[in-house]
C-alpha cells in the first residue's frame, strides 16, 4: 500500500527551504542579539555577550522535523515529536516559530523582524527560555535537559492513543544511558489494536560533548543486530550529500509509516496472528553540526565533537570568526526563506501542516486540552468498618483496599487509566486490578503465565525508569495513572520525579499549557517492614526528595490506615499538575479511623486523636505532645501513649497525627500549611513535641522551621540503621519504638509525675528483654506481636506470662546443665 506519494521536486524545495530556515533560526538564537535578518554586515554589537546553546544536534533534528511535516501534510497523521538529544531546544523553538504556533502562544514573538529579534534575544538569556526542549517549547512533552527518557515518554504517550504516532529522536549520546537502553523494550508492551505507535529515530552524529559515541563507532552490522534483537526492523539512512539525503530519508520515512499502518490495520481488522509485530525504526547517520563550519582555525569541526555546543566561540574577539559566522548564516540563502518584513516565505510555509496537525500545536503535546476526568467509583464503598470498640483491634493490609479501588477505576475507565509497577503489583497488595485487566505483554506467552496477555493494560516491567517514564508520557498526553514501587527503589527514578515536578512547576506559569493529570506515586514495601530483604531495601529517601520540591507542585501523604489511603487516592486521582507522593506499607496494620473520621482527618491534613491521648484533656494545655506521621510509627506512638496513660495517668498527653505532611509548613512556605492559630491549637506554642516520623528526622525540623520555639520538637525517624531483622527490631534500632518514645516524653514533659523514673527504667528493661528475645526466638516479643488498642492490661499479662515462661525455661536449662556437670565429674571428665 502507498500512503505517502514519492518525493517530487516541489517537495524537495519545500522541505529543504523549511530545513534551511530552521537552521538559520537556530544559529541566530545561539549568536545574535541584533540584526536578525543580516540587513547589514555583522558587527560585534550584534553578537550576544554570552554564547550559549548547542548546535551539534540541531541540524539533524530540524532535518527530521521538516520531513515529518511533509508526511503529516500528505497523510493527516496526528504526531508528537520527542527530541531526546539533550540541548536541541533551539531547533524545536525554530520549528514552532516557522509553524506559526509559537507566535500564537507567545504573541510578543511576532513573525517579522522585530519578532525575530525577540526570538533570538530570549534564548538562553535572563528572563528568556532554556536551551533545551523545555515546557516553554510548544509541541514538547519531554524535557531534553536530562538524557535517557525519550523512549519511555514516547511509549507512555502511545499507550491507549490508537491514532497517535510518536516520533522519538534518540541521540547517540543519550543512547548510552541506562534508562534509554531499557526504553527499547517498549514494543514488548505495545498493542497495535488499542495503542498508537512509536517510531524511534536513532540519530548517529558521532560525537558527545568531548568525544565519540559508542554506537557511532560500532560496526554497522553490530548496531543493526542490537536493534534487530530488540525486535525492530532497522532502516538505515546515511550521508550528507544534498539533495539525495532528502530523497533517501523521505523514502525511509514513507516505508516505515506504511509498515506501521499495515501492522495496525491487520491487528484492528482481526487479522493479527498474535505475534509481537516487528516495528520499524530508522537509524540516521549524518554529520554532527551538519551545514555548519567545516573547519575552524585549522581544526575540523563539522562531523566531530567540536560541533557539539558553539562551534565559533570567539566571534566577539576574533574578526575572522565573525566573518565565518556571517558566511555560515548567509549560506542558507535568506532571500528564499524570509520576506523583507521578516516573515517566513511562502516556500517555507508550504511545508507546514495546518492547524492542530502542526506538531507544535498538536493537542496531544498539550495533554490538558484532551484530558477527560476519571469516572471514579465512590471511595466510601471501600470503607473498613471501625467503631470505638473495634478501633485498632484487628489488622489488615491497607493497600489491598487501594487495589480494589483501582480495579474499579480500570473497569469504569477502559482507555484512560493505567497502573505502572516494576513487577510488584501483587507484592504491594494491589492485585485486585487483575480481576479486570491482565498484565500487558506483546511477546509470546506460556501456559504457566498468570494474568498476562496482549489485551492487558496493567503495566509491569522490571524498570523503575520505564514505569515512571511511561506514566509521565501517559499523563502529559492527558490520561491518568499511578506509579507504584517499593519505597527504597523509588530512588532509582528519583531524578525523573524531580524533572516531572520541574516541568509541572513551569507549566503552571504558562496559561496556554492546560493542566494535566497529576503524577501519582505510591511507595509501599517500606523501610520499616522489609524484614527479609534487609538494609538494601530500607530507605525513605524519595520522601525527602519530594519534600524539597516547590510547594506549588509537591504533595506528600502518609495515610495511617486503609480508609485514609483510599480517601487520599481519590483526591490525588482528581488533582492536576501535582506530584503526589503517597507512602503506605503493605503489611497488616491496625485500622484507626472509620470513613467519616478519615475524610475529616485527611481533608484537614492532620488531627488530634483524643481517644489516643489523655482522656478528658479537651482543650486543656498538655504536658507533652506526642505526634506521628506514617503508618508504622503511628502504631508505636499510639502504643507509647497507651503506656503513658496506664503508667502515668496524671501526665496530660495530646496525640496528633499528620497525614498531609505539607501542613506542617507555614502557609507562606506551602499552600497546605497550617495557620499559626491551627498550629498552636494542635502543637501549642511552648510545650515540647515528641514526633515519630516515617522518614529522616531532619525533615520534621525542616518542616517546622519558623514555627514558635521550633527547637521544642524532638523528632525520631529512620537513621540508616537497618538489617534483616524483625519488624519491631527495625523501629528499636532507629529508636522510634514505643519505649524510646515513652522515655522521650518523660525527659521532655513539663512535669515529672510520680512513677516517671520507674517507668523509664521499665522501658530500658523492655528494650533489653526485646534484644535477648529476638535472638533466642527469632520473632518479636508476645506483647508486640499481639498488641491491640485499649488492651494494656492484657499486654502486661503477656509480659508476666512470658517472663514466667522464660524463667521456667531458664531453670530447666540450668538443671539440665547441672546434671551434665555432675555426670562429667563422676566420670572424671570435668
Automatic annotation (TrEMBL):
Keywords: Lyase, Thiamine pyrophosphate. Residues 586-788 form the Xylulose 5-phosphate/Fructose 6-phosphate phosphoketolase C-terminal domain. GO terms for molecular function: aldehyde-lyase activity; magnesium ion binding. The keyword Lyase applies. GO terms for biological process: carbohydrate metabolic process. InterPro entries: THDP-binding, Transketo_C/PFOR_II, Xul5P/Fru6P_PKetolase, Xul5P/Fru6P_PKetolase_C, Xul5P/Fru6P_PKetolase_CS, Xul5P/Fru6P_PKetolase_N, Xul5P/Fru6P_PKetolase_ThDP_BS. The keyword Protein biosynthesis does not apply. Residues 8-369 form the Xylulose 5-phosphate/Fructose 6-phosphate phosphoketolase N-terminal domain. Its cofactor is thiamine diphosphate. PANTHER family: PHOSPHOKETOLASE-RELATED. Belongs to the XFP family. This is Phosphoketolase family protein. It comes from Brooklawnia propionicigenes. The lineage of its organism: Bacteria, Bacillati, Actinomycetota, Actinomycetes, Propionibacteriales.
